[in-house]
Structures are given as C-alpha cells and as structure tokens.
Recover the amino acids of this structure.
C-alpha cells in the first residue's frame, strides 16, 4: 500500500531526519514520534546510529522467542534500560502498514517494543498498523448485519460484477479462487497455505470499496447468504473435519508476527462499547471491518457461521478448554456477540 502514497513517504523521510537530528541533539522525542513512522525505517535509522543500535539489539534479545522467557533480575534491568532509552528514539510510536513489503520484519520491530515481558513499560494503548488514509466511502456501503436493508437489487451480485470490472480486484480474486479450489497432489484436497496467502493478498491489496462490498453485502435469503459464506472458499481456507480448540488456534496465531498483529488490531478497532452510538469504542466501524478482513487467511480466519444469519466467527470451539474455558469463551464472544462488529 505504500506505493499509493509516494509523496507522503518523502515527507515522512524528511520529517524522520528532522526528528532524528532533534533527538540526537538531546531534545526529547516522545512528542515527535506519534506521526506515522514505520518501524522498518525507524529500525534502519536506529541500526545506523552507534548509540541506538546496541540498545535495539539488546531489546531484541530480551524479547526473543515468544517473549515469555523469565529474565533474571540483572537481565531484566538491562532490558528495561534499553527499552527506556529507545523510547526517546523514532522507534517509539512506530507502526507498520498492512500488506507492506517486509511486513513481518517491520512487525518484529514493533513487537520488540510491545512485548508482554516488558509490559510495565509499554506506555499507551497502541496498535501495530497505521490507520488507513484513503476515503471511507465503503463504510456507507458495507454492513455485516444489514438484513433490515431490503433492497430490490442484489447487492452481492452487483459487488461481484463491480469486482470483475476492476482490474486489481478481478485479478487477485481469480488468483485466490484458483489457489483455493485447485487440488494439490501433495497436500490432499487443497493447498491451504497457498489459498490463505492468496486470500491475504486479496484483502490487503484490493481497496475495501470492493472487498467489503463482496464480503459484507446484505442478504435476505439463504441462497445469497450461502454464496456470501462461500466467498472466501471455507472448505479450503479454514474448514476441517473437526473444530480445533480456539485457544490452541490463538496460540499458533500469536507465535506469528503477522497473525498476532492482525488480532491485536482487530481487538483495538472492534472493541465494543455500550456507551457509543456505533457500538464501537473507537467510533470507526470502517476500521473495524478492515481489521476483520485482516484476519482472513490467518489461523483464526473468521467467516459467516451459517447461511441463515449474519453471525461470524472463527472455525474453532471451546469444548475441551479445561480451566481456560472462560478465556476461550471471551475470545469467541469477541466475534459472536460483539456490538461493534454487528451493529
Ligand atoms: C444452507 O446450509 C445448509 C446446511 O449447511 C445446507 O444444507 C443448505 O444447502 C444451504 N443452503 C443453500 C441455499 O445453499
């Protein structure tokens, strides 16, 4: 997506250099770091600085693995010092762009600064992805639970037609459909990783005006709803004979920087709130839908649960969760019973 904003990037470069110069000159950089600096660039800038570079290296060692390694008091102290020092560099407040080149590398830097081991030091509520800058017309068009909107036209069919006319949408849709229905000799009936990769590409690269209209079009009958449910080719992208345990799936998700980030973003953007008119704490339904599609093609891919409702959720169950039952139900509730997602 970075290619869409060439001039912005140049401005960011210039600003970045100014920020860095100020920081090096001893001016506190905390206030300067909020505005859209990507972690990959911030990491590069840091690596070429003799003071910053060893601190970042230390921090990355501190959070190696899943970050749950217990650190001794000495190491912990060192880690906290490195972390504190890095908070006054452009790394503080850095984010990544969804679908960007080297997204995983960028996110690994982001998470170095946001690991749970050092939780006491993570300052504000934060989320890994920069907000989308494009217009949000699609918010008007899209709605997960728009059954009440009885229309004479078939919006789902119109959405498919619209996608066929747009070059990128048509191309990437064809790509994922063929990746998801093509049987592969080696991995059985379908190649799930390939299918999911193509799905992620579709939802990361095609403007939401098209993708959201396809996936969230309103349906009044089961044929339409079934077609909508089939949009992401469930039989290949996530369905299995048995539903795995949700927490096990979430654990796999969190071990992957991209999935972990998509999940964190979804939790942030789709956080429900009884107090707000939209049902969303962030008051941005468009951002919530965008975060939702960010999960498609991951271990916790959500989809419509059936062809008679607009309920959505991932393919997993909380049976056999032992004493983590409540935690597991909280996870499912975030999809099944989320007023932000369904309003
Ligand atoms: C709706 O789902 C049911 C159960 O999965 C299935 O038997 C039925 O054929 C579906 N309806 C349509 C119209 O596809």
């Amino acid at each position: 997506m970075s290619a869409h904003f060439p001039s912005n990037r140049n401005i960011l470069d210039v600003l970045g250099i100014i920020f860095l110069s100020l920081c090096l000159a001893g001016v506190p950089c905390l206030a300067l770091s909020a505005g859209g600096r990507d972690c990959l660039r911030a990491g590069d800038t840091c690596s070429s600085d003799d003071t910053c570079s060893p601190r970042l290296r230390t921090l990355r060692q501190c959070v190696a693995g899943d970050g749950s390694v217990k650190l001794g008091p000495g190491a912990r102290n060192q880690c906290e010092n490195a972390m504190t020092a890095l908070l006054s560099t452009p790394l503080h407040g850095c984010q990544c762009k969804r679908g960007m080149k080297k997204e995983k590398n960028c996110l690994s830097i982001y998470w170095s600064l946001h690991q749970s081991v050092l939780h006491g030091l993570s300052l504000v509520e934060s989320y890994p992805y920069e907000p989308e800058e494009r217009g949000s017309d699609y918010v008007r068009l899209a709605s997960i639970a728009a059954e009440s909107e009885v229309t004479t036209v078939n919006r789902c069919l119109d959405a498919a037609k619209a996608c066929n006319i747009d070059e990128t949408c048509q191309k990437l849709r064809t790509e994922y459909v063929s990746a998801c229905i093509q049987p592969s000799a080696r991995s059985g009936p379908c190649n799930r990783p390939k299918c999911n990769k193509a799905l992620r590409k579709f939802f990361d690269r095609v403007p939401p005006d098209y993708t959201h209209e396809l996936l969230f079009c309103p349906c009044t009958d089961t044929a339409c709803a079934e077609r909508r449910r089939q949009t992401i080719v469930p039989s290949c992208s996530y369905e299995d004979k048995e539903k795995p345990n949700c927490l096990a799936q979430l654990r796999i998700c969190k071990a992957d920087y991209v999935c972990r980030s998509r999940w964190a973003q979804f939790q942030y953007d789709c956080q429900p709130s009884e107090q707000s008119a939209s049902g969303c704490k962030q008051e941005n339904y468009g951002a919530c839908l965008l975060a939702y599609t960010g999960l498609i093609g991951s271990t916790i891919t959500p989809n419509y649960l059936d062809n008679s409702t607009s309920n959505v959720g991932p393919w997993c169950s909380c049976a056999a969760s032992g004493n983590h039952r409540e935690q597991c139900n909280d996870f499912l509730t975030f999809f099944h019973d989320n007023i932000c997602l369904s309003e």
Observations:
- Strands lie at 302-304, 312-314.
- The chain is about 50% helix and 0% strand.
